[in-house]
Fold this sequence. Notes:
Elements: H1 3-38, H2 56-59, E1 62-67, E2 74-76, E3 82-85, E4 92-93, E5 104-109, E6 112-117, E7 124-126, E8 129-130, E9 134-136, E10 143-145, E11 148-153
Amino acid sequence: MSELAFTILRLGYLVLLWVFLFLVARTLRRDVAEVSSSAPRRRSGQQPSAEAPRGRRRSASRLVITEGPLAGSTVPLSPSSIIIGRSPSCTLVLDDSYASSRHARVFPKDGAWWLEDLGSTNGTTMDGRPVHGAVELPMNIPVRIGQTTLELRS
């Protein structure tokens, strides 16, 4: 092999290595930004309220899994978001190949509970209809994520 061909191969390998490192850094940056944007934010100096707002949110106290591998399980509701997916960092971890790693979230807003699909591959359905973005989640309405069905209950 000539010296010129060997030098070109070395430079090509170096370029591929830098492209790989750039792609890894870009993916990590995007994932960190996604996680930090889903965290609840407070204005500076604002204290979290100890009392939950009155209304529909107060009557719902849990998510009940009605179908799927975790049928019969419940997740108690709290003032923070519930992230649903396959990732171990999720609040509700689903062992389901049809669920994305961060599939959906259930969160309180304006005294009600809301459901948001987080850009999942196979989608989220509420009462048989696809969910796009954030929608209000009524009580006792089935939400399907992969093979799992869950409902908001009191």
